[in-house]
Every structure is written in C-alpha cells, then in structure tokens.
Amino acid sequence: KRGVAFKDPAYTLFFKTTNSKVSWMYNWYQDVIAPPTGFYYVPMLWSAAPDAVDRWNANVDKNVKTHCCYNFLAFNEPDRCVDHDSACISDVGVAATAYKTWMQPISARYGDKIRLGSPAVTNGAPPMGLDYLSRFIATCTGCQIDFVAIHWYDNANNFAYFKLHVKNAYEAGGRRPVWITEFRPTGSEADVIAFLKEALPWLDSQDYVERYAYFM
C-alpha cells in the first residue's frame, strides 16, 4: 500500500531499504521516469490545462509500454481554486467532460488491465473535498472510476478526524477503493511521529484503503 510522493526521483532512494514497505511512487505529473528504485510508477494528469493534456496520450503510451503502468491518476486538487488556479476545475461538469476526453480512452487502447482513479480532492469544506468528489461521480455518467483519490491535511492531534475522513471518502466514492495520495499532519515532530504510529497500522488494516503516500 505504501508509496512515495516526490519531485526529484532521487528522493525515493531514501525508501529503498531492506525492510521498506514502499512499493510505488508518483510525482503528481506524467513524465516518463526511469525509477532508480524500481518502485512502481503511477502517472498523474495534473490538470486539463493545454500543457498537461498535450503530452498526456504520448506519455500514457510510453508508461504502459516501458514501465508496465496500468494505474493512472486524474486531476490534482481540481476543487481547490482560491490559490490553485493551474489545476482548478471548479465545475464538475467540465471536469467530467475532461475526464471522458483524457482518462476514459486509456481503457479503450489497453483493455481491462487499466485502472483509473478519480480526481484527487482536498479535505476542504463543501463545495470542495468529498462534496466535489460525490458530485463528480454523479455527473461523470458512464465513466470508468476504479478507485477514488483523496488528500488530507490537518493537525497531528486530530487522528479521529483522519479516520473519519478516509471512511467518508469510501462512502462518497460509492465504496470504491481509496488511495490517499497526499496526507500530512501539522504539529511538533513528536506529535507527527505519534500520529504516524497510529495512522500507518490503521491504514494497513483497512481493506478498502488500497494505497497511500505521505506528502514529501
């Protein structure tokens, strides 16, 4: 289940140890990367902006053929539009159309082995977060959505909220598997360590949590 989110692929080398539980990695973008660690690489279509979609089909093909990547992540925090203009798709109808244009055709090209993730939403209040996710799934009729992707940022002393949010994401996503592609608590180093000592065993024990990646 455990993965690494990164900007520089060399960062993943810190997790290549004999007792590592890390098996996959992603960099919230799509460029084909030769992973120095051998971890499974999952490409993401950051947004529906021209500079992202113009390269998407070619990079999908390269990833499938070169790295045998059959999981693909959709838009990164399209619900966060105040300070996130490059990825913002506030209208779920527009997001659904973009998903059908750029994500859905991957299965047509490569068949049943392809698995597609929902847009990765924040844990913001409605109309953001899980409200956005629910509306996207309802709007994206006929879409192949094999798992839902979420992010979570809050205080390290709020583990109960973390668990509740993950459970609510499972329900909001129509009981699809959940990928937590970004999460990070705030607080002192001791508080963060205490949070992770609770969170990681709990995530590992939840059958519906398919993958998770601590942010940086």
Give the overall form: globular
Largest sheet: spatial strand order: 3-2-1-8-7-6-5-4
**Whole-Å distance between the termini?**
16 Å
Mean pLDDT: 92
How many individual domains?
A: 1
Based on CA atoms alone, the radius of gyration comes out at 17 Å
* Helical residue percent band: 25-40%
> What is the total tally of β strands?
8
- Describe the biggest sheet? 8 strands, parallel
- CATH-derived architecture: Alpha-Beta Barrel
In the CATH hierarchy, what is the class? Alpha Beta
The run of helices and strands is EEEHEHHEHEHEHE
Instruction: State the CATH topology.
Output: TIM Barrel
- The parts where pLDDT drops under 50 for at least 5 residues are none
- Judged by helices, strands and strand pairing, the structural class is alpha/beta
CATH homologous superfamily placement: Glycosidases
Supply the number of helical segments: 6
Beta-strand residue percentage: 15-25%
Word description of this protein:
The chain has 216 residues and is α/β, with parallel strands linked by helices. It has one domain (2-214): Glycosidases (TIM Barrel, Alpha-Beta Barrel), CATH 3.20.20.80. It is 36% helix and 20% strand. It has helices spanning 50-67, 92-102, 105-110, 129-139, 159-172, 189-205; strands spanning 2-5, 22-26, 40-41, 71-72, 115-121, 147-155, 178-186, 209-214. Strands 3-2-1-8-7-6-5-4 form an eight-stranded parallel sheet, covered by helices on one side. Helix 5 (159-172) links the parallel strand 6 (147-155) and strand 7 (178-186). Helix 2 (92-102) packs across helix 4 (129-139). The longest helix has 18 residues, at 50-67. The protein is globular, with a radius of gyration of 17 Å. The protein starts with a strand and ends with a strand. The model has no long low-confidence stretch (mean pLDDT 92).
